[in-house]
Design brief:
139 residues, alpha+beta, 3 helices, 51% helix, transmembrane helix, LHPL6 protein, LHFPL, membrane, signal
Length: 139
């Protein structure tokens, strides 16, 4: 197998893939915020939630649903900020994964990644990292 990457490039490719995988797993897990509500442990992320309150028509009161699930629709996400965070974080994870998989392919295919492509990919990766890490923390 021929490679178009230097030793540093191969290390970058594998670290990029590990970081992209960790970002994607973090995006899909509902454990961004942890707390309690109605004496139950509650957690939620940008588009998933665990143990959430729901109105029960039969008893006419709020009950805790003790299961994990996603919001029924994009508009069901609690606020505009969380909807923006969902889109931006999803795009960031997608960019990170695209660059990481391209870099891994560069380990196997000669002349796939040039110095210029490596620099552009690093810039895209930087933007993806900023999107997936920086937007949702202050909301």
């Amino acid at each position: 197998m021929a490679s178009s990457l230097t030793c540093a490039g191969v290390i970058w490719a594998f670290l990029s893939f590990l970081c992209a995988a960790a970002s994607c797993v973090g995006f899909f897990m509902p454990y961004w915020l942890l707390g309690s509500q109605l004496e139950k442990s509650v957690s939620f992320g940008t588009f998933r939630r665990c143990s959430y309150p729901e109105w029960d028509e039969s008893s006419q009161m709020t009950v805790m649903v003790e299961k994990c699930g996603r919001y029924a629709s994009f508009q069901a996400i609690p606020s505009a900020e969380w909807r923006i965070c969902t889109v931006v974080t999803g795009l960031g994870c997608g960019l990170l994964l695209l660059v990481a998989l391209t870099a891994l392919m560069g380990c196997c295919v000669s002349e796939l990644i040039s110095r210029t492509v490596g620099r552009v990919a690093g810039g895209i990766q930087f933007l993806g990292g900023k999107c997936s890490c920086g937007e949702g923390m202050g909301v």
